[in-house]
Design goal:
mainly alpha; globular; 7 helices
Length: 165
């Protein structure tokens, strides 16, 4: 199973999302509020890209979609979308991005528990890095996210593709 994922699927998704994290961070770094308006479009492109990758490579890995796992992720995302509305806390673009990133990392942790531990560890490490950037490196937050947000995703993709056995 690992060799099949390594050869066909896992690394492309990680490279795609690593690049999107870097692009999002650099958009906000260089374009400020105008850059934040483009973030949902980058996320939508990532979702479409992930779906295309999954569709193209679905014929190479014969594995049924785990509907319970997808339902769990949908519940996490829907509930987490409600929390800022209920809490009504004013937030900066950095805090909103960090919150969304933490929700995504929770999904990685859940996927790691459900499927393979590399996603668990990736989610935990990126959570720590995201929180460090938010609380201790706020003056360079967007550079931090580009390097320590997108970087680990891309590096993990290379690890899976070339070193995972």
């Amino acid at each position: 199973m690992r060799s099949s994922i390594r050869a066909r699927r896992g690394h492309y998704h990680l490279w795609l999302w690593g690049g999107i994290w870097i692009a999002m961070a650099m958009l906000v770094q260089f374009h400020g509020l105008a850059g934040t308006r483009l973030l949902p479009w980058l996320c939508a492109a990532g979702v479409i890209g992930s779906a295309v990758l999954g569709f193209i490579q679905g014929s190479q890995i014969r594995m049924p979609v785990d509907r319970r796992f997808l339902a769990l992720l949908a519940a996490v995302v829907l509930f987490s979308a409600l929390w800022p509305i209920v809490l009504r806390a004013p937030a900066s673009s950095e805090v909103i991005f960090a919150y969304a990133g933490l929700v995504v990392m929770l999904c990685y942790v859940i996927a790691g528990i459900w499927f393979d531990t590399y996603l668990l560890w990736l989610g935990l490490v990126m959570t720590v890095l995201l929180l460090l950037g938010l609380f201790f490196f706020s003056s360079i937050f967007w550079w931090w996210v580009a390097i320590f947000g997108g970087g680990p995703l891309i590096a993990t993709g290379f690890y899976i593709r070339y070193f995972w056995r």
